[in-house]
Amino acid sequence: MRILCIFKLASTLLYKLIQFIIHLTNLYTAPAKHRVYKRHIAHYLLATVKIWKYNLSK
After folding, report:
1. Which of 11, 18, 12 is nearest to 56 (CA)?
2. 20 to 30 A Cα–Cα from 2, which one of 20, 24, 25, 28?
3. Is 29 contained in some domain?
């Protein structure tokens, strides 16, 4: 149960951090370039969550 709470907190913090990074890059990059970058981050996040879920289910 404790691990799950830590996991939820970590994923929330990671999400906030990535949102902040996206916000920063949004200020410096062109919109077209930014869309591609955002999609890459989304794929990375999804993969990370899948790995975490797999590790927790063991």
Report:
1. 11
2. 20
3. yes
Could you tell me if residue 4 is inside a domain? no
- Asked if the structure places residue 15 within a domain, the reply is no
Give the tokens for residue 5.
């709470």
Tokens of 8: 């939820």
Tokens 């969550």 map to which residue? Answer: 49
Joined together, the tokens standing for residue 41 give: 């981050």
58: helix, coil or strand?
Answer: coil
One digit per residue, the tens of pLDDT, for the chain of length 58 reads 688 888 888 888 888 888 888 777 766 665 656 566 667 777 787 888 888 888 777 6
Angle between helix 2-28 and 31-57 (nearest 10): 170
Instruction: Give the list of residues 6+ apart from residue 40 with CB closer than 8 angstroms, or none.
Output: none
